[in-house]
Specification:
Largest sheet: 3 strands, mixed
Mean pLDDT: 96
Helix content: 25-40%
Radius of gyration: 24 Å
Low-confidence stretches: none
CATH architecture of the largest domain: Alpha-Beta Complex
Number of helices: 11
Order of helices and strands: EEHHEHEHEHHHEEEEEEHHHEEEEEH
Strand order of the largest sheet: 1-2-3
Distance between the termini: 51 Å
Structural class: alpha+beta
Strand content: 15-25%
Number of strands: 16
């Protein structure tokens, strides 16, 4: 753990990194532990304290303080009924020091975590470049008869061969009608000639995530209807990128993309004007074919922490991932890139990854 106490009378203990003490016997079983100089070099923190000696130091520090900031899980998407390590530590501290004022560190960390520095984005770009190379490899690998899990295995192999930690999340390899299942994880079907494959995957590198979605034809060439739907989704993708700027909230942004989706779905024959005219404002007509959000925060977690109601700010990183899912045609398309918000707009960190029908077909033809 890290302990920050800027008011500590002893300057040496104002910033402390707590680690497990190395034990040569245990290292034979569990691997090497960091030594003091190694930990200092990695973290930049000069004062290293071993966990087994912390208790004698922590008590006098706590007695000097009024407020104790403790971390907790405040990710809206990740709840747990089990008492995690963080909450057990909170219980322990409250029991030992009941008269102190306890404050949520997570609220501060959430705001800090949402804004990425240039150095953080540089690491994310590495994860994205690894994902780019992997996608190009997959375009050469896919053909009729290949199994979804074989594609997943190629992705995993490509990630590891490029020194990624591994996948940032469970890869979605959804061919044919499986593409309409947003979190499809079975990955056990055969990819058939004439179908498309929706692939949602990303590498983790240096603790940061990439998150890419592409939809490609199994045969290497889009059918006429497939091309029409794909280009409608690409239009929505480009439109969403054009309005994702500082000042807009995710709620307003999603509503605007919904308006554009309505027009596209009318254009490609998914909706009739009467359906739009008589739609329920709480369940709009376009939601039949696009039933998920358009963007989420991205960073050290694939669904990273950050606001969904306040105006977005420069430095945030978002996915942009509209989709079109048509039950009647047993078809699903999703196109996803990762964008870094700048002061005046955004920077597409995946701008070099093939995305158009023509680019995909040309690379698959090779």
């Amino acid at each position: 753990m890290v302990i920050l106490f800027p008011d500590n009378p002893d300057p040496k203990f104002r910033e402390v990194l707590v680690l497990v003490r190395p034990n040569e016997l245990m290292e034979k079983w569990n691997g090497k532990r960091l030594r003091i100089k190694e930990a200092q070099a990695i973290s930049g923190i000069k004062t290293i304290v071993w966990l087994d000696s912390l208790e004698g130091l922590l008590q006098p520090w706590v007695h000097l303080a009024d407020n104790i900031y403790l971390d907790s899980n405040e990710n809206d998407r990740k709840a747990s009924l089990l008492r995690t390590r963080e909450y057990r530590f909170i219980d322990e501290m409250r029991s030992r020091y009941p008269l102190h004022n306890y404050v949520r560190a997570a609220k501060i960390l959430k705001e800090m975590r949402a804004i990425k520095t240039a150095q953080e984005v540089e690491v994310m770009q590495q994860a994205i470049d690894i994902t780019d190379n992997t996608f190009r490899r997959i375009l050469q690998f896919v053909k009729p008869g290949v199994m979804e899990y074989e594609i997943e295995a190629e992705i995993f192999h490509s990630f590891l061969s490029q020194r990624a930690t591994g996948p940032a999340y469970g890869s979605i390899i959804a061919s044919g009608d499986n593409a309409r299942i947003l979190h499809y994880v079975s990955n056990n079907a055969e990819c058939k000639d004439g179908d498309m494959i929706l692939m949602d995957f990303g590498a983790e590198y240096g603790g940061y995530c990439a998150d890419l979605s592409r939809t490609i034809p199994v045969s290497g060439k889009f059918g006429r209807r497939q091309k029409t739907v794909y280009n409608a989704c690409l239009h929505l993708h480009d439109y969403a990128k054009s309005i994702l700027k500082p000042g807009i909230s995710i709620v307003d942004y999603t509503n605007k993309v919904g308006e554009e989706a309505t027009q596209q779905f009318l254009k490609i024959g998914l909706l009739r004007k009467s359906e739009v005219k008589n739609e329920d404002s709480e369940n709009r007509a376009y939601r039949k074919y696009l039933y998920h959000g358009i963007s989420h925060h991205l960073g050290v977690d694939v669904h990273d922490l950050g606001t969904r109601t306040e105006p977005i700010k420069a430095g945030m990183v978002f996915t942009v991932e509209p989709g079109i899912y048509i039950e009647e045609e047993q078809m699903g398309v999703r196109i996803e890139n990762n964008l870094w918000i700048t002061k005046t707009g955004n920077k597409d960190l995946m701008k070099n990854i093939p995305i158009t029908v023509e680019e995909i077909e040309a690379l698959m033809k090779k």
